[in-house]
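Why run this: before we spend reagent on co-expression, it is cheaper to look at a predicted model of the complex and decide which construct boundaries make sense. The entries below are exactly what would go into the expression plan.
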Amino acid sequence: MLSRKTLYDKVWDLHTVGNLPGGSTQLFIGLHLIHEVTSPQAFSALEEKDFKVNSPERTVATVDHIVPTKSQERPFKDSLAEEMLKTLEKNCKKHGIKLFQIGSGNQGIVHVIAPEAGLTQPGMTVACGDSHTSTHGAFGAIAFGIGTSQVRDVLASQTVAMKKLKVKRLWFKGELNKGVFAKDLILHVIKILGVKGGVGFAYEFAGPAIQKLSMEERMTICNMAIEGGARCGYINPDETTFSYLKHRPYSPQGKEWELAKTWWEGLSSDKDAEFDSEVIFDASQIEPTVTWGITPGQAIGISEKIPNPQELIDSDVDIAEQAYKYMRFNPGEPINGVPIDVCFIGSCTNGRLSDLRIAAQIVKDQKVAQGVKAFVVPGSEKVSIEAEKEGLDNIFRSAGFEWRKPGCSMCLAMNPDKLEGDQICASSSNRNFKGRQGSSNGRTLLMSPAMVAAAAINGHVSDVRKNFNKSE
Amino acid sequence: MSQTNFNEQSFPKGPITTVQGRCMCLKGDDIDTDRIIPARFLKCVSFDFLGDKVFIDDRFEGKGNHPFDQDINKGASILLVNKNFGCGSSREHAPQALMRWGIRAIIGESFAEIFYGNCLSLGVTCATLPAKEINSLMNATKSNPSQKFNLSLLTKILKGKENTWNINIEKATYEMLVSGRWDIANTLLSEGSKIKSIKQKLPYLNNFKNI
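The model came back. Tokens follow.
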């Protein structure tokens, strides 16, 4: 009989240990990524129960959330941050877990380093105590964020109790226009489907517009599936996936490479796979997209105006009212032209080499507008090294950007990088929640790294497509 | 029958069949975990001191009027919320903070996925009601905030002083909670041999030889 399975079904079945009471699945985890923030309590719980780490060889650690990005000299000035890293070091040493340490050339944001090392591969299940684990789905893996108790469970058993999700296919016809990026595509999706649209679903991103995207762009899209409520987002693996993986340190080598490729090729959703739901988008209709509110769903195209309550569905009015008040924006105002105080380029969403390249292209031979603080935080040491080889750091510095060391930085401000007061930040990160960037009245506008770069130069939100036209 | 005594601040343990106590309302959709517990409080290696940090920035802004600051809500054990509660970051610190504050059950229109799973891992019951029913429950709570409620997982009935509500609990959640298997590590570990056989079967753990 012809198979009609999705990639999600296939990977799920391969990793199913058994069924749990009430219909959850005990799912084997092929790659467990850990970091300093959500693992210490899990290790403590493990020790309390006298459990061992089941598969230290399938567990990889790094430090990212709390690391300062100016000086990473030890001990950190912040004694709590230092304690967290020391705890991670101690736990990794004790349990034989590989730690991608600062200065090793491998450290960085957990969702940047695992793919670049070739650790993330098609057909795996990937879990990490971080909601943006959905990033790894870009490789055709089933990847999802878990809580600390589940980190404990995975450490102890290499399995986790999970309910199988339904699959919603998001099909993108057409092609993204020049100056429109993966970030715009995913912000557009969340704008249309809402922050609850994916609850209970895994999103399969597919169609010609997706196939044309690089792996780094695909990661940006899957990264933010969770912002649309989907715990998992994935893309079927193809030649783009395979050529990205070839010759990475942890990728299969030699004879194994061909075997792996054959296996990976069979994982994609079958031609006649049945999806629980499907939505079709036209990628060519998407314009640079910016959030104006306090949820990633409160987004508009750069040419649009902040919506009036009358234009919204009833259930969106209350949160919109909160957003007008918090952001101090009025309905009906354009987003284009909103003055910016801070520009942040980085994060697990948009801190990769291609993100920095495109931003550098915008800022080359330009100057950051007066009064704007702009900084770039590479997603990993590898990204940083590569960018410096290409001279991107110099382009940014000459324009007036600060060039920092890798970490999560101002995406969540668990480190010295924070907004102050009610500053407005043009940010390439993933969340615009109240207080997210470290000031309880700080304001975040999410956008693509190219749009952040344009905002830095112009001092206000602006349409980056104009910069592309100029440079031609 | 095993049940948790909320006045004694004991955390959920074993089979959970009943949650008793007062309800408190927290209105609003899409309340994210950054609001429940801001990231700066994640700088810790234990969950012990999170209870009084719950919603700290919202409470500061509310100047004493936030539901978690109102005297009438002190000691409440059932939190009433609206849609997509707990969205955003996977931080278990959020349900930990609520649990350590005293919350043992959350009833809402809907929950974000990871938050929901984290609650189950702690034995905190998440149940749902349609919007209309949540409103009537919130109104009943507001009109008599001191009334005691009894949430029976077995009958799926929430009983107040004058009214009852038929709550929904997902089957898997229900069975985990009432059997006590929500504290799942031991259950997972008991499948050691099956886990081993999966490991020996997965192509990427076996040099792709067995594809």
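Helices of chain B lie at 33-36, 56-62, 93-101, 113-122, 131-143, 171-179, 185-189, 192-201. Residues 1-8 of chain B have pLDDT under 50 and may be disordered. Bring this page to Monday's planning discussion.
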